[in-house]
């Protein structure tokens, strides 16, 4: 009997080991499948872009930058990835600027200006410039791609190229006038260009399409205020042109000036002088013999 229970315990222990081994093998397979799936996603540009956007929306900016850089490595013409990279880098640069302002460390007098040249481009600027190039390729290939024109305008706006931004956004609105975001973005850039009348029209259209568009409502107030301000503003005088007030204060015009008319007509010329009569006894009046 003791031998029987001993054999049973041995068999049970062996089964437990086999079961644990099977469970461990199953877990390893699951992890391997997950890693393989992640590697597959990172090899697909669109899936990698979506993952980068997800990380960016969740506030994981550094991780998003790494994934978005991976996306543009997979597809150098992926314009949306460059645009999202520009957004991510802008957030990092803004954070660093705030940290520099709040820093209490003293600034050394001997600052090496060569270490940070003024003409050095930021990472966000480089990313937005690449986004512009990639979106222009799309618009050149398809003149009806209103999404590409819209994002092209947004990329130009991030680079402070407002005129180019307005032109691209106008094209997006022309192709798809029923998009409230297009109208709002166009109105925003037109305000920067002081094109208030056109901005009011675009923003009114945006609110017509979406009455809950709070951004368009706020921008519309600014555009209307700018339009009123311009209508009451006196245009500056052109220094190359004479002032009308100065012309009126000049000396009185003279009749000899042919370009100026006077109220009184010029006096008539004096009558011609009559010839004096010669004496009768003058030699000139004597008859000839």
List keywords for this structure.
single chain; 289 residues; mainly alpha; 11 helices; disordered C terminus
Question: Layout of helices and strands, plus pairs?
Answer:
Elements: H1 2-42, H2 45-57, H3 61-74, H4 79-102, H5 123-141, H6 146-158, H7 162-175, H8 180-192, H9 196-209, H10 214-231, H11 244-248
Structure notes:
With 289 residues, the protein is mainly α. It is 65% helix and 0% strand. It is built from eleven helices and no strands. It is elongated. The N and C termini lie far apart (201 Å).
Task: Summarize this structure briefly.
By secondary structure, the protein is an all-alpha fold. 65% of the residues lie in helices and 0% in strands. It has 11 helices and no strands.
* Total beta strand runs: 0
Helix content: 55-70%
- What class do helices, strands and sheet pairing give? mainly alpha
What is the CA–CA distance across the termini? 201 Å
Query: Unreliable stretches, pLDDT < 50, 5 or more residues?
Result: 13-25, 31-36, 244-263, 282-289
Number of helices: 11
Over the alpha carbons, how many angstroms does the gyration radius reach? 43 Å
pLDDT averaged over residues: 77
Shape: elongated
Largest sheet: none
> What is the subunit arrangement here?
single chain
Q: How do the SSEs run, as a string of H and E?
A: HHHHHHHHHHH
Give the amount of beta strand, in percent.
Answer: under 5%
């Amino acid at each position: 009997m003791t031998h029987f229970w001993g054999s049973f315990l041995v068999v049970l222990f062996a089964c437990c080991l086999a079961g644990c081994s099977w469970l461990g093998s199953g877990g390893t397979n699951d992890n391997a499948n997950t890693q393989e799936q992640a590697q597959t996603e990172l090899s697909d540009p669109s899936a990698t872009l979506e993952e980068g956007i997800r990380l960016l929306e969740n506030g994981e900016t550094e991780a998003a930058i790494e994934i978005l850089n991976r996306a543009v490595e997979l597809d150098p013409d992926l314009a949306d990835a460059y645009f999202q990279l520009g957004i991510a880098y802008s957030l990092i640069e803004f954070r660093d600027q705030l940290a520099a302002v709040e820093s209490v460390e003293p600034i050394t007098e001997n600052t090496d200006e060569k270490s940070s040249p003024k003409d050095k481009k930021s990472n966000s600027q480089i990313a937005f410039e690449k986004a512009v190039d990639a979106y222009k390729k799309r618009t050149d290939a398809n003149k009806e791609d209103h999404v590409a024109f819209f994002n092209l305008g947004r990329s130009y706006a991030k680079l402070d190229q407002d005129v180019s931004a307005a032109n691209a956004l106008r094209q997006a609105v022309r192709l798809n006038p029923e998009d409230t975001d297009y109208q709002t973005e166009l109105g925003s850039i037109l305000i920067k260009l002081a094109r208030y009348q056109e901005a009011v029209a675009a923003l009114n259209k945006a609110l017509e399409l979406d009455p809950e568009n709070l951004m368009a409502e706020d921008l519309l107030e600014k555009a209307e205020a700018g339009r009123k301000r311009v209508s009451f503003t006196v245009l500056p005088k052109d220094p190359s042109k004479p002032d009308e007030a100065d012309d009126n204060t000049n000396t009185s015009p003279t009749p000899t000036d042919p370009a100026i008319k006077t109220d009184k007509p010029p006096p008539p010329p004096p009558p011609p002088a009559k010839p004096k009569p010669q004496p009768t006894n003058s030699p000139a009046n004597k008859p000839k013999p």
